[in-house]
Amino acid sequence: MSKNKISNYRKEAKSLNYEVKEPAELLEFLLKVLSNRSRNSVKSILARGQVTIDDHIETKYNYMLRPGQTVTILKNKAAIKQDVLIGMSILHEDEDIIVINKEAGLLSIATEKEKKQTALHQLMEYVKKEDHDNRVFVVHRLDKDTSGVMMFAKSEQVKRKMQDNWKEIVKERTYAALVEGQVPKEKGYISSWLRESKTHLMYSSQTENDGLHAITHYKRIQSNEDFSLLEVQLETGRKNQIRVHMQDLGYPVVGDKKYGSKQRNAIGRLGLHAKVLSFNHPTTNQLMLFKADVPQSFLAKSR
Questions:
Q1: Which active-site residues does the annotation give?
Q2: pTM of the predicted structure, to 2 decimals
Q3: Which helix or strand (DSSP H or E) is residue 32 part of?
Q4: Does residue 103 sit in the same domain as residue 63?
Q5: Are the beta carbons of 187 and 220 closer than 8 angstroms?
Q6: Are 22 and 33 contacting, i.e. CB atoms less than 8 angstroms apart?
Q7: Quick one: which of 15, 95, 195, 282 has the most CB atoms within 10 Å?
Q8: How many CB atoms lie under 10 A from the CB of residue 155?
Q9: Are residues 20 and 130 part of one domain?
Q10: Dihedral over Cα of 245, 248, 252, 255: its sign
């Protein structure tokens, strides 16, 4: 293939993929592969969340790349206007709901610092293209650094129905958790009452009714001396439930400094992924099941 043909192909592509051959800081790596762009232009690409590494969005200039990782760059800002959703993909859409696969690093909803680079804002813009009066509503959330299956409603009525009947409608919520250390038990469960401190830190209490009751079931999938990959099922859905319960177990989630992790940048993200969400459709009552593959970094670290 001639250089011209390669150049034309790249112009048509919505993203560019580069394999990391040697350790390097992300910004320096990008400046090399995007040598036709200015330093400020490359920084802007990073800041807009247009760079992903394997399975997560990365915006830090000094993120250390490791050989074997794949760096993906959305071609340019115009890509956003071409129905490219940054940091997420749509798994299912109908008149009532949208189900997405969210990457780690993407906020579910706006914060004081970030209003637009969120799953909710992008989906709102997406549905408005069809009809300006269309709306999207949050049914449940995933933490910024948690990836996986997440659902939104297309009306206030559907949102309320899902939230008011969550325990009856939702049939399965399964996560993959990469935790520090070798978990000895093949399976088990943690039960406690969760409370929130004044600093917004969740913590467990064994005193009955001292907070919201939380039950987490886990099964060990694979492990080595340093890491274990667990399949985690939620019997209840409390804030930071898995993260607190893994800390209680003595095997904190990888990358979770808030709840006891001691490993620095083991996989460059939080080791938590929502891999299965199954529920009865709020309108048709049909049983639906959606899956998002476990990130390769989780599998590789725990082999």
A1: 143
A2: 0.75
A3: helix 26-33
A4: no
A5: yes
A6: no
A7: 282
A8: 17
A9: no
A10: positive
